[in-house]
Amino acid sequence: MSESQTTFRLLPWPTPEGNPCFLAGDGTGYVSRVADSIETMQLDVADDLLGHADDMLGDPKVTTRELRFLATELATALRDTRRVAVSRGARLLSSASGSEGHGSDASAGA
Asked: Which residues contact 80 (CB under 8 A, 6 or more apart)?
């Protein structure tokens, strides 16, 4: 079995103050599994919203209020999806660098 390496993972939720939240660990614990599950749910929500957007944009009866609500939800989903991409990208870079780096700076723009 290989030696565990501590890395810092950007979690899919912010701190209570709205700042990026990180987890230090080897990526195999309970919180990592919960984060994986939440990321999957966030990506599923984004996918569902895209389907709704396609339907609504093709409907001439849709109201301005409905479109504003959709835009708000799409913006939230886009932020969540971006956070997932930043987190996963940082983990890919960290694993590609092997033992050279013991973490990553995933906070840029998160």
From this structure: 12, 42, 45, 46
pTM: 0.76
Among 53, 62, 106, 52, CA closest to 84: 106
Q: How far is CA 62 from CA 12, 50, 66, 106, in A?
A: 32, 16, 6, 39
The string of pLDDT tens digits covering residues 5-35 is 778 899 999 999 999 999 998 888 999 999 9
Find residue 8's DSSP bridge partners. 24
pLDDT in tens, 72-91: 999 999 999 999 999 999 88
